[in-house]
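Shipment paperwork, digital attachment
Item: protein structure file
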Amino acid sequence: MEKLIYQTIENHAKKVIETSDILLGVEKQLGVDSFELKGGYRSFASFINSLCEKGFLSPVKASGINGRNPPLYNKYRILVENESKLSDELVLELQALYPKLDKSYYFKNPEAYKNDRKYILMLSQYLLDSTSGRSLKYRCTMNERSFEIFNNEKFLESHGKVLLKRVGLSLEDLNCYKTLEAFFYILLEPKDRLNILIIENKDTFYSVVKFLERKPKRQIYGVNVDMLIYGEGKKIINSYSFIAEVAMDKEIERVYYFGDLDYEGIGIYNSLALKYGKDLIVPHVRLYQELLKAAKKPPKLRTNQSEVPLEPFLEHFDEESRREIAAVLYDGKYIPQEAVKFVPEK
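Attachment content:
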């Protein structure tokens, strides 16, 4: 019945079609007995409503309803352009896909279905296969599942994201997860509550490691440090999510950030605070103040950097430090982390 309804609408010459014309046409082609066996008027009405949901039809509300149960409007406007449509064969193919796949996007966008068809069929076949059903019980990585379904371990990471959205599925539905990008870290003190210090650059990271190894209390400028993380520049913005794998059941009390005193370094801090919480992630104020003390004549920036909002960063500092930091940046200068020397106390 669905094929005949679709064909009747598709072959209609005008943009508005009467419900009675569709109904009579389908009944005539099927025959009354066959029409009733296939669900009769109720199935007919259900499919008409589904075509409205999918964007094929729009009710002409001014035409009124037909008085039957369930009610339909007397007229509907055809929204799908004739020059961009699925063949009868593809309509049937789309309808026969795995039932839980949402096909509405592809009914409304025939060209997209033609482009995605190869992968949609692979996904549907996988979900219909009983062997695959057993495999789905076991959680695996996104790339592993991608290879299992599409014979391409990178597909879900690329166009697969769009495809899943179009059919109403998620990685959770495929019982897989995206692996987190790891960061390099050193756990100095395995406590239940952790203070973490993120260092932007490699040289400073190793200097701080050696400095803290000589400090029984693992303290740096008034802050106890239980874990050190090498931020590796902007990489930490995404890779910090890996902390869930590292900290496990430990509570994170505070995360301190220390980077270059330039727009890029402050931009990294802003992104971290925005993504993971400004109450959790704060600048290590004393270390930045040490930068200001160490560089009496800050050098000019050697790279072009876009300005970033300073307030989320500067709000943690006293008024004098705020002025000094702003003056350095507005004058087109910067202070690298390497300006601070981590030497043993005498």
